[in-house]
Specification:
This protein is of the alpha/beta class. The protein is about 35% helix and about 20% strand. A hairpin with a 2-residue loop joins strand 11 (about 250-255) and strand 12. The two termini are about 20 Å apart.
């Protein structure tokens, strides 16, 4: 798996952004100054909103419309950035990939693991890159914390705490699990970035404090069993008004040779003999995700958040929810994956996707090795014009 590159291509990749809401606006503002990609089109069912957003950002030449196929045809876009609500991700991703366009999709890639597996199959069928934008992987100090973690030897426990109070009127405040689905997905994915010690099972309880302004459970605790026997212990809340942590959570890791911590912002510490911490600047957040996406298209190498790699992150979220709904019972993630494959086959209405899903020996095997990038070939000019 590759990391994001700081070397811009010889020409900007023309992209269409689908979704002109708050997050879509953030993407468009970043893209307007990017050396990696050029926003040539914006798609939203609310065309007036899309027009207003592009005008406010100064993207006067961008093509605007309600149809992805139409806007791509008129703008000449060669890739899609999907910033719609999670329930729409699958529909947009399918339309783009079947039209021959690679997709960078905002997290969560899908509302369920079953839907994510159907998208894995679609990526296989079309041969297009589908990458999730787990943007919090792209932080300078998270990378330094990973390097510190690597100096601890075998891990005993990883602890992460997230306590915040955020008001986001709209679909987030109406979600059944606004913490686990919309925020913890970042922290769970960061765990998988920090160590190759993958999660295998989870116990979780979630609840909604009496003063919460969320409709669903805004607080949870979860303990994941890792493959080595170590534990990932997580506590979080989106409605805690005091002593708030970083959006990236507050982390402590304990291992064979010592311990390391990260405050989620700029303070990384390691206490393990002669171990030390070094930081190297990198593009962060959605800019980092974009640069890795474009660089992967240029090199043909598989990005770290290719659709298969991201499925286990979604399984962590769904496993935590399933455990909570069962009173904190232990949920084995491999069993969840196989249940999800059966559900994906039952739900799938398209013969080509259903046939491919049925051909898989197991969900775990299907997501083990990314198909895209297994035979490196550039599909977009790299720096210097190489293909």
């Amino acid at each position: 798996m590759m990391e994001n590159s700081s070397t811009p291509p010889s020409e900007r990749l023309p992209v269409v952004v689908v979704g002109a809401g708050a997050m879509g606006g953030d993407w468009l503002r970043m893209l307007s100054g990017s050396a990696f990609a050029e926003p040539v089109g914006v798609v939203d069912l609310n065309v007036e909103l899309a027009s207003r957003t592009t005008a406010e950002i100064g993207l006067h030449d961008a093509t605007v419309g309600a149809s992805l196929t139409d806007v791509v045809g008129r703008s000449g876009a060669r890739a899609v950035i999907n910033v719609t609500v999670p329930q729409a991700h699958g529909v947009v991703n399918e339309e783009a990939m079947r039209a021959g366009l690679p997709v960078l999709c905002e997290k969560p890639l899908a509302p369920t693991v079953a839907e994510a597996l159907r998208q894995v199959a679609l990526a296989d069928l079309t041969g297009e890159l589908l990458m999730a934008s787990q943007s919090r992987r792209y932080f300078t100090h998270l990378s330094a914390f990973r390097d510190a973690t690597a100096q601890l030897g075998a891990l005993g426990a990883v602890h992460a705490e997230f306590f915040h109070a955020d008001h986001e009127p709209g679909f987030r405040e109406q979600m059944a699990h606004p913490l686990l689905v919309d925020m913890s997905v970042h922290h769970f994915d960061m765990l998988r970035y920090l160590t190759a010690d993958e999660p295998v099972a989870v116990r979780c309880v979630s609840w909604n404090p009496a003063w919460s302004w969320f409709a669903g459970d805004a607080a949870a605790t979860a303990t994941f069993d890792l493959a080595s026997g170590a534990r990932f212990v997580y506590s979080g809340s989106r409605c805690t008004p005091g002593l708030q942590t970083s959006w990236n959570a507050d982390w402590h890791i304990y291992g064979e040779h010592g311990a390391a911590s990260w405050d989620g912002d700029h303070l990384v510490r390691v206490d393990a003999g002669d171990a030390d911490v070094e930081t190297s600047e990198r593009s962060e957040g959605i800019q980092g995700a974009l640069e890795e996406f474009v660089s992967s298209l240029a090199s043909g190498l598989t990005p770290q958040n290719e659709v298969r790699t991201n499925v286990l992150t979604l399984a962590m979220v769904e496993g935590a929810i399933r455990s909570s709904e069962r009173g904190g019972d232990r949920v084995v993630l491999e069993e969840l994956l196989e249940d999800s494959l059966a559900q994906a086959i039952a739900d799938e209405q398209r013969d080509d996707v259903a046939d491919l899903l049925r051909s898989w020996p197991s969900a775990a095997e299907a997501i083990a090795t990314p198909a895209w990038g297994s035979s490196p070939q550039a599909v977009f000019p790299a720096s210097g014009g190489a293909r």
